């Protein structure tokens, strides 16, 4: 049985802001966005709270950490306010799964 992989296409590096609290936010790189969550690159994964607000362009999403590495965070969207496509619309250069990128 073949192993299925998600392949992403890099169309540019996009940044976001993670709200740590009402006074502090950290920059991050958006590596991948799906309908249910995203992968971020950060300077220190330990600084990211278990739940956070993420700003990408004009979109704001509530996220929950699923996996945490020293410089990588995998998070699920905790809200249903916006779809992955609306987050991508706010930042059109985001990486997309190959199946979606081929349709563009």
What does this entry look like structurally?
By secondary structure, the protein is mainly beta. The chain has a domain at 12-79: Beta Barrel (Thrombin, subunit H). It contains two helices and eight strands. The protein has helices at residues 84-90, 98-102, and strands at 8-9, 14-21, 24-33, 37-41, 51-56, 59-68, 72-77, 96-97. It has a six-stranded antiparallel beta barrel with strand order 2-3-4-7-6-5. The longest helix has 7 residues, at 84-90. It is globular, with a radius of gyration of 13 Å.
CATH superfamily of the domain at 12-79: predicted glycosyltransferase like domains
Which strand-content bin applies to the residues? Answer: over 45%
Mean pLDDT: 76
For this structure, what is the CATH class of the domain at 12-79?
Answer: Mainly Beta
Largest sheet: 6 strands, antiparallel, barrel
| Series of secondary-structure elements, N-terminal to C-terminal | EEEEEEEHEH
Low-confidence stretches: 4-12, 90-94, 96-104
Span from first to last CA? Answer: 30 Å
Instruction: Quickly count the helices.
Output: 2
Q: What general outline do the C-alpha atoms trace?
A: globular
Please state the CA-atom Rg, rounded to the nearest Å.
13 Å
User: What CATH architecture of the domain at 12-79 would you give?
Assistant: Beta Barrel
């Amino acid at each position: 049985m073949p192993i299925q992989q998600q392949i992403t296409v890099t169309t540019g590096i996009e940044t976001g802001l993670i709200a740590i609290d009402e006074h502090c936010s950290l920059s991050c790189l958006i590596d991948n966005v799906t309908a249910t969550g995203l992968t971020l690159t950060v300077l220190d994964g330990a600084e990211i709270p278990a739940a956070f607000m993420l700003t990408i362009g004009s979109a704001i999403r509530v996220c929950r950490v699923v996996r945490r590495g020293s410089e990588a965070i995998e998070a699920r969207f905790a809200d249903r306010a916006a779809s992955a496509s609306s987050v991508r619309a706010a930042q059109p250069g985001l990486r997309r799964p190959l199946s979606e990128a081929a349709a563009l």
